[in-house]
Every structure is written in structure tokens, then in C-alpha cells.
């Protein structure tokens, strides 16, 4: 049994130190990708760490990543460190290389936000901006009540307005409007940006380097915040052929993000886009998000709205806002990495099972 208290961290600095130590101990080689655009809350350098083990000419590569959505990385990092410490990667099949990506969005991880240093949702940011971005007129309609200047001062008022919108249009339309991604409001929710972010460019490079000359590359990207407490949804990414492959590896309950059967709304520009694009010619890729449920969706959205308000409308470090900021940070932590031992045990076991399935797939 892994020591989960020693695996699940409470700060980016601690998570990073633990990941690097556990990876080194398990025989992995580490590479640093330094984010030169931002620093952590204590001025610490922000780094995506990549740990690799296995032959350089392996046929198969298994990538396990954490922190695409910043704060969700506390769960992903905890799972990675627990698996390393428990010896899950001590003996690998001879044709497999394992690549662990730690804190793909280190700004969000360190500052306990879902977004990056530019308020960008990395899983809406990975698209070809030159080819044009999706329009989301329903988000435009909702933005004034979702992310008003005074949201943190009178949330109940604005929540009631949102309730009216849901009553008029229905919850599925609301979820699609809010979370499918928008490219017009940098101070809004689920903003996809106007160019590839540092994390998006870095991930592309990591996949290119990780894939090498492999013929078969798997990606498992750990997330939290959607679904029932402690439950796992395996969200299949990519085209139908890739989804079918994912079902053969992880089970028939793999959902299809694009197919409307996931807890998540269909999105554009998630990290599977560069993953599939960067694979060597002729190689096959298979990608899933491991999505662990926390609290209910309304509470998660409220936490995101409060956090968005804190960073776009007030200064989270200003003295007069410190109390409010601390309350908001507690709310968003509860929404994305619950301080609950049973939850940690459950998600760690589910992640371990998915990793074993990925490693043994042929
Ligand atoms: Zn996520």
C-alpha cells in the first residue's frame, strides 16, 4: 500500500520535490522545461518536469501526465508519486518506455488555479489559431452574469441570474455554453487564448521527444472536478478509431468526448490535438483523460467563478483582499483536490489500474 500522505502534496514546491525524488529513486531520467513567463506565489521557478524510463528505441511509449489544469495536478502528481513509490514502474515490459509529465501547467499548479498565467484553459488552447477559432455566442450572452466585475461581492445575485438562464435554456445548453470554450473574453471562464500558450508549445515538444520512433503511443492525462465523488470517467479522445482502441485497452466504458456521452461538454483544442499531430508518421496513438469526480458541478462552477473574479477583478495579493482570497482558495481546493483520505485511496487505486492496463496493452 502506497503511503498517500507522502505522495499527495499541498504545494507545488513540495509536489515537485517529491516527484523528482521518487522518479530518481525509481530509475527515471529527469528533464526540466522552465516556464519563463511567470513565477510561483513565493517567487519559485515554474517547471514542467518530465521523467523517462525505458529503452530509447522502444516500440511502445506510455505517457502519464498531470496538471494540464493546474490545480488538478495535486491529484495527478499524488497518483504519479504514489505509483513510483509503490514500485509500479520497477519492472517494465522490454519494449515499453514510460514518460511521466509533471505539472504541464505549473503556474496553475503553483497558484492553485485551473488556468495558466494568461487565464487560459490549456484544454481549449491547443488548436490552429490561423485556421480560425470556434464561435460561442451563447457564452457571449452569459458572460455578463457569469463573470461580472462584482461577482465576489454579491455572488447570490449573479447566481440567481444564471439560474434564470438555465431555466430558460436547459442545463445541457448551459454547460455547452460555459465550458466548451470561448475565444473572445480573456477575463472570462474557459478562455482558449489567442495563440498557443507556453504549456501547449511545451507539450508538443514533449510528445515529439517522448514518441521517438515508437509505433504505438498512449497518453493518460489526469483530471479532477467532473463526475461523482471519487468516481472515474475514462474520457476517450481523438477520432473514432482512437476511441475504439482506447476501449480495447481500458474497457467498453471509455466515453467519447466528441460524442456527447461524457460528463464533459465537447470541447475544441484539448491537448490530444498536439498529441496526435506530433506522433511519428505511421504510428498509432491512443489518448484518454482520467477524470475523477469531486463535488457537484454547481459547486465546481461557483469555485471557478470566484477564482476568476479574484484574479481578473481584484488583486489576490492585496492586503484588504487577503481574507477573501483565502476563502476562495479553500473553495477551489475543495472542488479540485478534496482533503479526504478515502477519496485519495480510491483515485490512486483507479489510476493504478488504468496505468497497469496501459502498460500491459499489446
Ligand atoms: Zn481538467
Summarize the structure.
With 362 residues, the chain is α/β, with parallel strands linked by helices. Helix content is 42%, strand content 18%.
List the helices and strands and how they pair.
Blueprint: H1 12-25, E1 29-39, E2 45-53, E3 60-65, H2 73-85, E4 96-102, H3 106-111, H4 122-125, H5 137-146, H6 155-169, H7 171-179, H8 198-211, E5 216-229, E6 232-237, H9 240-250, E7 255-256, H10 272-277, E8 284-293, H11 297-312, H12 322-336, H13 341-360
This protein binds zinc ion.
Describe this structure in words.
- It comes from Pyruvatibacter mobilis.
- This is DUF2817 domain-containing protein.
- With 362 residues, the protein is α/β, with parallel strands linked by helices.
- Helices cover 42% and strands 18% of the residues.
- It has 13 helices and eight strands.
- It has helices spanning 12-25, 73-85, 106-111, 122-125, 137-146, 155-169, 171-179, 198-211, 240-250, 272-277, 297-312, 322-336, 341-360; strands at 29-39, 45-53, 60-65, 96-102, 216-229, 232-237, 255-256, 284-293.
- An eight-stranded mixed beta sheet has the order 1-2-4-3-5-8-6-7, with helices on both faces.
- The mean pLDDT is 95.
- Zinc ion (ZN) binds next to strand 5.
Amino acid at each position: 500500500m502506497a503511503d498517500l500522505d507522502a505522495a499527495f502534496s499541498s504545494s507545488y514546491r513540495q509536489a515537485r520535490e517529491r516527484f523528482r525524488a521518487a522518479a530518481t529513486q525509481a530509475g527515471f531520467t529527469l528533464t526540466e522545461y522552465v516556464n519563463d513567463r511567470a513565477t510561483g506565489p513565493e517567487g519559485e521557478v515554474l517547471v514542467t518536469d518530465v521523467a523517462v524510463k525505458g529503452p530509447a528505441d522502444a516500440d511502445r511509449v506510455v505517457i502519464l501526465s498531470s496538471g494540464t489544469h493546474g490545480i488538478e495536478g495535486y491529484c495527478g502528481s499524488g497518483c504519479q508519486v504514489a505509483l513510483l513509490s509503490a514500485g509500479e514502474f520497477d519492472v517494465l515490459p522490454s519494449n515499453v518506455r514510460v514518460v511521466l509529465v509533471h505539472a504541464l501547467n505549473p503556474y496553475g499548479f503553483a497558484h492553485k488555479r485551473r488556468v495558466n498565467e494568461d487565464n487560459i484553459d490549456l484544454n481549449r488552447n491547443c488548436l490552429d489559431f490561423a485556421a480560425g477559432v470556434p464561435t460561442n455566442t451563447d457564452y457571449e450572452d452569459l458572460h455578463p452574469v457569469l463573470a461580472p466585475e462584482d461577482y465576489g461581492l454579491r455572488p447570490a445575485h449573479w447566481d440567481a441570474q444564471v439560474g434564470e438562464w438555465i431555466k430558460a435554456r436547459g442545463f445541457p445548453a448551459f454547460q455547452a455554453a460555459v465550458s466548451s470554450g470561448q475565444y473572445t473574453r480573456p477575463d472570462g471562464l474557459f478562455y482558449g487564448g489567442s495563440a498557443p500558450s507556453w504549456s501547449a508549445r511545451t507539450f508538443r515538444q514533449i510528445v515529439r521527444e517522448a514518441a521517438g520512433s515508437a509505433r504505438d503511443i498512449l497518453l493518460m492525462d489526469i483530471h479532477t472536478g467532473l463526475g461523482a465523488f471519487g468516481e472515474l470517467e475514462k474520457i476517450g479522445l481523438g477520432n473514432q478509431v482512437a476511441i475504439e482502441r482506447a476501449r480495447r485497452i481500458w474497457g467498453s466504458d471509455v466515453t467519447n468526448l466528441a460524442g456527447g456521452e461524457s460528463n464533459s461538454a465537447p470541447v475544441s483544442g484539448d491537448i490530444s490535438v498536439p498529441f496526435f499531430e506530433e506522433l511519428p508518421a505511421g504510428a498509432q496513438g491512443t489518448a484518454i483523460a482520467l477524470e475523477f469526480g469531486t463535488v457537484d458541478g454547481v459547486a465546481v462552477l461557483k469555485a471557478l467563478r470566484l477564482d476568476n473574479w479574484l484574479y481578473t477583478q481584484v488583486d489576490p495579493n492585496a492586503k484588504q483582499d487577503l481574507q477573501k482570497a483565502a476563502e476562495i482558495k479553500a473553495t477551489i481546493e475543495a472542488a479540485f483536490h478534496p482533503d479526504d483520505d478515502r477519496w485519495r485511496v480510491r483515485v490512486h487505486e483507479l489510476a493504478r489500474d488504468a496505468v497497469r492496463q496501459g502498460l500491459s496493452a499489446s
